[in-house]
Design a protein that fits this description.
By secondary structure, the protein is α+β, with helices and mostly antiparallel strands. The chain contains eleven helices and eleven strands. It has helices at about 5-15, 20-30, 45-55, 55-65, 65-70, 80, 95-110, 125-135, 155-160, 160-170, 210-230, and strands spanning about 35, 40-45, 70, 90-95, 115-120, 140-150, 170-175, 180-185, 190-195, 205-210, 230. Strand 8 (about 180-185) and strand 9 (about 190-195) form a beta hairpin.
């Protein structure tokens, strides 16, 4: 994009007439997006470069209009919304079963760390996670105050050694009042689940990716929530269910 072009060269590369290119270049020049140099080449301006940087986000919205119409991201800080173009690098995991399978595999594939933010804890996920923790994988864990848990979970956690790992500091758990995003990541991959307009996590739709940009977005978002979270006072919860 930074390379200057003559109109005739642009027309040839784009397969349109020079008149069409000239007409559109004039419009861009009037808005300050491009300018003509002394060499008769057209150069993109700083304003043009800024506008181009937003094209991926515009494309994302255009391709996913129905999704964004039915999901609430109003709670996501603007500094993260502006970077949502990273979702272009993700794969959509459709269906609750497939989303939970991918969630589980992110736990299973971890070799260095697992970071997550969860509003509910579906059954069948804690076992592979505890196995990774027993192999010295770091686990930073943010839960919501109204965390939805399956029946018998406390006994299951007790049996698997969850509370022992909490007391040993191998699991570091914090809490937030609420979250409209479920996030699960390890050092190589990540998945995020947004909430519907009704405020319920949409387990039917997960954005899963391995790109550096997407993982950086997830890590930055996790750090943002972690800094706002508070310590969970009790490290051990006696069995009660």
């Amino acid at each position: 994009v930074k390379k200057p072009y003559r109109i005739s060269v642009l027309a040839k590369e784009l397969g349109v007439t020079s008149q069409e290119i000239h007409r559109n270049i004039d419009r861009l020049a009037q808005k300050g997006f491009v300018k003509k140099g002394v060499d008769d080449h057209y150069h993109i301006t700083t304003i043009g470069q800024i506008m181009l940087s937003q094209v991926p986000l515009i494309k994302l919205i255009a391709k996913n209009t129905k999704f964004f119409e039915s999901h609430d991201i109003s709670h996501v800080p603007q500094k993260f919304v502006k970077r949502l173009a990273v979702l272009e690098d993700t794969k959509k995991i459709k269906g609750v079963t497939k989303s939970l399978d991918k969630w589980k595999s992110i736990y299973q594939n971890a070799r260095e760390f697992v970071y997550d933010i969860i509003t509910e804890s579906p059954p069948g996920l804690v076992e592979p996670l505890i196995k990774r923790i027993s192999d010295d994988v770091q686990y930073l864990h943010v839960i919501t105050e109204d965390l939805i848990e399956p029946d018998g979970r406390t006994k299951t956690l007790e049996k698997l050694g969850y509370f022992k790992y909490l007391e040993e500091g191998k699991i570091v758990r914090r809490s937030v009042k609420e979250s409209q995003v479920i996030l699960i990541m390890n050092e190589k991959e990540a998945g995020i689940i947004f909430s519907t307009n009704e405020g319920e996590p949409d387990l039917r739709n997960m954005h899963y990716g391995t790109s550096t940009a997407f993982r950086e977005w997830c890590k930055d978002y996790f750090d943002y929530v972690w800094e706002k979270s508070k310590k969970v006072k009790k490290t051990h919860i006696p069995p009660s269910d």
